[in-house]
Amino acid sequence: MENNNPLSPHIQIYRWHISSLVSISHRITGIINIVAITIICFWIASLLLGENSYEFTKVFLNSILGKFIILGLTWSFSFQILSEIRHLIMDLGYGFELKVTKITGLIVIIGSFFLTILIYLIGKQFI
Amino acid sequence: MVQINLPKNSEVQKGIYYQDKTGSKNIRKVNVYRWDPSNGKNPREDTYEVDMDNCPSKVLDILNKIKNEIDPSLAYRRSCAHGVCGSCAMNMDGKNGLACTKPHSEIEGDINIYPLPHLKVKKDLIGDLSGLYKQYESIEPWLKTNTKVETTEIIQSQKDRKKLDGAYECIMCACCSTSCPSYWWNEDKFLGPAVLLQAYRWIVDSRDDERKERLKKVADELKLYRCHTIMNCTNACPKGLNPAKAIAELKKMLATS
Questions:
Q1: Which of B30, B46, B17 is nearest to B109 (CA)?
Q2: pLDDT at B64
Q3: Cys-Cys with B233: which of A122, B86, B150, B243 at CB 3.0–4.6 Å?
Q4: What does the pLDDT average to over A83-92?
Q5: Distance between CA atoms of residues A9 and A7, nearest Å
Q6: CATH class of the B8-127 domain in this structure
Q7: Check: CATH 3.90.550.10 for B130-256?
Q8: B75 alpha-carbon distance from chain centroid
Q9: Which of B122, B179, B244 sits opposite A14 (nearest CB)?
Q10: Residue A29: pLDDT over 60
């Protein structure tokens, strides 16, 4: 017989904390990065088509929307890298104490913004 | 499967408001999840005004007060009231825990009380844990010895005994498993933190002879590796244990064996 009893509320009521936030963001940035890498591949492929298509992407990436996308992707990659390092350390069996997970989680969140700014500043030297 | 929204029959509706009748000045609003299996209606959230001047310190005391003085129809599990039996596990203020050890002074604002998340509700705050018990049975949580004599004590060194610390204290209240999003979406396949902690407890027991078989049994993409170190389990455990670490140790054993 099928159980028609109601399901108790779950994600609607469960309180977020730093580790769960980092975990879900890790997934979301992971998906964004995969899409981003695909787009970057297409972009590079389009360069083969000649100057016109190069100019087109250049104009697009220099627009406000383009800059926003670039910065967003830089953050998403930064976050993914830091969070992945955290995961690797955890896979070695370290950093499972509640306090430590909180601290490493905060480092990932705050660090991702710092890394974005750093990459932005370094990148500016080349342009 | 990942399903963010609750099914239609599980959506929580506004319930009854029980106004305070004692005339107390120290009132707190307590929102409690209610579901009555007899009338086929959706679950609802009742609000009780509770006189906090005459209420002991724990959330369970509030529930007892509601049941004794305001609404006797409220159903919830409780037994020892000392954080040992694990009966009164529920979701309070968005976090799983034992109602008998959770002080209500730690909760700010209105007190929201729900059953353990993502379970089939039997009545009010009582969730159906039979799936979890079946999984617990599947890891065969008893000592298996092939070589040792059963009539005498099996000696264990202090060092080996130490390995069980942090695992044997588990009271199987299910706070951890029902806090885990991976368990919510894969409750039929993923064993969940509570059962994996127990699997770990038998694997590291020096007296057990079936370590290899036990490890082989949990070594499964879905049974074990659905853990993504979200840490909700360790965050929820009312006994201060660390199921996430035990799961990581299991993964490590499998990677190095």
A1: B30
A2: 97
A3: B243
A4: 95
A5: 6
A6: alpha beta
A7: no
A8: 17
A9: B179
A10: yes
